[in-house]
Specification:
transferase activity, GGCT-like_sf, two-stranded antiparallel ribbon, 36% strand, transferase, 6 helices, 191 residues, EC 4.3.2.7, binds benzoic acid, alpha+beta, ChaC, Hypothetical upf0131 protein ytfp, five-stranded mixed β-sheet
């Protein structure tokens, strides 16, 4: 699949005619909402887990030296916690551009503490050409430590995400293990 998903996302007509749509954020969207929204609420989705398995060519790395950012991987029984935003359809034009490096919009049930709605999430699937796939948390930390792109150091992305999850009161072993390995690398760079 092409790395630039803007055209594919704009064919998505599932919510055409709706005045507002819930969007589930599990990565930078948790801490960086650079778009207008009507409501913002903690939420979760079932059957997916957050993984630093997507390459970033345009934000936290470059095409020659991609960084690592999160995507969602299907996993039976998993729950991914994040933040949901109620947005108007025009906001998707902005987000399709911001997240054009392999992310496709997918319709998904979003769970709040008081109920469920059908909404959207951006997912980078394993068939996109920027996908990097699994690695140990220690190797992912080393990769993040040496990566940077137009949006800044890859380590800022990881640390902001870990802090935002802590503020939400949510534990994510994968994210927190990478954070721990990165801190150890910074303390003793030869680890
Ligand atoms: C998110 O934070 O939900 C998100 C992550 C990657 C791409 C788009 C959105």
């Amino acid at each position: 699949m092409t790395a630039n998903t803007i055209a594919i996302n704009q064919l998505m007509d599932k919510f055409d005619g709706h005045h507002s749509v819930w969007l589930f954020g599990y990565g930078s969207l948790i801490y960086k909402a650079d778009f207008p929204y009507l409501q913002r609420r903690p939420a979760s989705i079932a059957g997916w887990t957050r993984r630093f398995w997507q390459g970033s060519h345009d934000h936290r790395g470059t095409p020659e030296a991609p960084g690592r950012v999160v995507t969602l991987i299907e996993e039976a029984g998993a729950i991914c916690h994040g933040m949901a935003y109620l947005i108007t359809p025009e906001v998707f034009t902005h987000l399709d551009h911001r997240e054009k490096n392999g992310y496709l919009r997918l319709a998904i049930p979003i769970t709040f503490e008081d109920g469920e709605v059908e909404g959207l999430v951006y997912i980078a699937t394993p068939d996109n050409i920027a996908f990097l796939g699994a690695a140990s948390e220690q190797d992912i930390a080393a990769h993040i430590a040496r990566s940077a792109g137009p949006s800044g150091p890859n380590s800022d992305y990881l640390n902001h995400l870990a802090s935002a999850l802590r503020e939400l009161g949510r534990h994510d072993q994968h994210v927190f293990d990478i954070e721990r390995h990165l801190a150890a690398l910074r303390a003793a760079p030869s680890e």
